[in-house]
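Subject: mismatched residue count in predicted assembly?

I count 852 residues in my input, but I want to confirm that the predicted structure covers every chain. Input:
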Amino acid sequence: MAETQVQTLPLQIKDEQVISPWREAWRTLRKNKLAMVGLAIIIFFVVIAVMAPWIAPYPYDQGELVMKNKPPSEEHWFGTDYNGRDVLSRVVYGARISLWVGTFSVIGSVVAGTILGLLAGYYGRWIDMIISRVFDIMLAFPSILLAIAIVAILGPSLQNALLAIAIINIPTFGRLVRSRVLSLKEEEFVMAARAIGMKDSRILMQHILPNSLAPIIVTGTMGIATAIIEAAALGFLGLGAQAPEPEWGKMLSDSRQYIQKAPWTVIFPGLSIMLTVLGFNLIGDGLRDALDPRMKN
Amino acid sequence: MKKRVLSGAMTSLLALSMLLAGCGGAQTTTQAPAEQPKTEAPATTPAAEPAKAGPKQLIIGRGGDTVGLDPIAQTDGESFKVTENVFDTLVGYAEETTEVVPSLAEKWEIAPDGLTYTFHLRSGVKFHDGTDFNAEAVKWNFERWSDKSHPQHNKEGFEYYNDMFGGYKGDETHVIKSVEAVDAQTVKFTLNRPLAPFIQNLGMSCFAIASPKAVQEAGPEKFNEKPVGTGPFKFVEWKRNDTITLEKNPDYWNAGFPKLDKLVFKVIPENTARLTALTSGEIDMMDGLNPDDAQTVKDNGDLQLILRPSMNLGFVGFNIEKKPLDNPKVREALAYAINKPAIIEAFFAGLGQPAVNPMPPSIWGHNNEIKDREFSIDKAKQLLSDAGFPNGFKIKFWAMPVARPYMPDGVKIAEAIQQDLKKIGVEAEIVTMEWATYLEKTKKGEQEMFMLGWTGDNGDPDNFLATLLDKNNIGGNNRTRWANEDAHKLLMSAQSATTKEEREKLYYQVQEIIFKDVPMVPLAHSTPALAARANIIDYKPHPKGSESLEKVDLK
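Triage response: the counts match. Full output below for your records.
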């Protein structure tokens, strides 16, 4: 892809049709209906998360016990949970937690993974040896098991769950970046840069990193979906968010014993997890198509 | 790319289908519960058929496995549920109360000074290994329990013996001076000091008489896995964390019993999963029914709801060694802020009553004069600012990770209390951990605020008040670490007082001190619920939480 960008760009300039590759990607993306649905879902949840205090009709952590497990009604659109709390309010505030954990854990693993991947790929030899073997070891564990272990050591809380999810996803991004770097390193424009005596740091930041961004963005978007599910799993196991935080996975686990009598306490957080994950997956797929030059016609 | 979209869609479909499967399952069990066992049970489990022809078998589902089967070495209810069917005690309790009735001892005499007890034993009783039960066997058992140098005494000691009889042989506080076998059927106990609940204590499930020969041959560790007693059922097999199987003892001394041929205790940890197993015919009865599910059981024609008489207490305790809980005003403020009636309504579903004192009103000696604090945010706030915390404080609140009869759902009740406390500015952080660790750490006093409970063993007030709040039991069952001297003196004199009236008065006073100083907030006395197939008859649950099933029969 990088090859095509670099080689086609000058041609386009000659034709006086300056369209940046990002702009072009956006055009492709916009034509992809599924991706747009995904984007709409995400925007919907982001708006809900940001506006939570104004949207939620009740506080998420206060309920009246007499209102325990009441079915959806005019006052409580999504019903109430076992503590008499409004499920709608909890789902709305839960969007904050899930998006926050999803986004920030991915940002964390992308930053760490990219730095390590750049180092490993560019310098090779023993640096690559160490970093890659550490990645191998981490990938040898089932990721959720590793996350559980990390949280068990740090103590169960939302922050620690976020940290654990960020850590377990580092190898995914690290390997991705490393493989990009390995091929980019051999490209002529990098060799040229090196030949004119450009510093390593400049080559990495100005040539190699920008050309690795597309796959990072695609994997990152998908990664948010995975991270949301992992956070929900940790919450479900009681290792993520702690009461009374309205984390979706925790809501599922807390209410599962009432699934027969009060299914709404489980359905709404479950649907929310499903929709956000679907949203991120759809937009991720769309981005992959839009950013991959081989897909272009 | 197509693949990706597809896999994304598949994932979400899967999630959706799982969700729907959950709801679907819910619908079938609530709408047509009657159909399931009929169609499935005979096909999958042969257990359901033999009720009519062949051996009578009962499979009992329960939440946890037995710890050990040597009764004296146990302290937990799941162990006693089994040992009570394999062993007998010298005296027993009436079917549904803690009134003492003859068991292995047919009758007994108590000397006027309260220091000598003479028991006349039932004759012709044999242990399951064929040896005779006689006065020597009783003597041998007591020696094993009391003498630390006895070859079959456990390394860890016998906790209940130590607690109920003031330590071991040689200890200054030890109650039993000697046990003599006067003749084959007569045993004489001589005590160092009077112990009012002595007879009451002897009926406890842990003081069951084991076959001396079997213990000597197997050694205490092996015997703990392969018990031999005189009880209505013989031990057959124990598959750890799965089942314990017992079979009928045809030579049982109580002629005509037991009615059943085979008894199987099966572990199914989740309360809801156990109920599903019951409705599908995998098991015949269960304990630990969620209060919420009681109505479901009532509505199911194939099942019956059995209620256990209440003799327990669920409470919120304060570790008074931790600040700011050392301040009685703070403790009282927290007591005012907990909305007891609402919690009981929501989590005990009518199967519980609010607790005022740390002992159930069903036991004599309960002080009915004490009126509980009414839930009041204002009073709580007032007390908090008097104590110097007008804006509240932060506190760690330890919540029970498991469902027990006295606390059907520890963490959810803790969340409700957390909500209550927030109203007076107290931010409670709920802490929870594995159950064994929880018990261990609270014993050591690492907690701040915590929740726990107690099911009575013998129906004596001492078994609640002294066990839970006497300063001698700090490091043991007194997890509040409340070391009130006045209460201690009263509790000790109540132990050695001989008349019930005298003891009653002392316990009234103790309860007043406890109420004023608030080392704990007694929350509820629950009525534990069991569920069984409709054809099970004569199941009489005992208030102490476990019972012998010799009389249980199938229609």
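Chain A touches chain B through 39 residues (CB under 8 Å). Marking this ticket as 'not a bug'.
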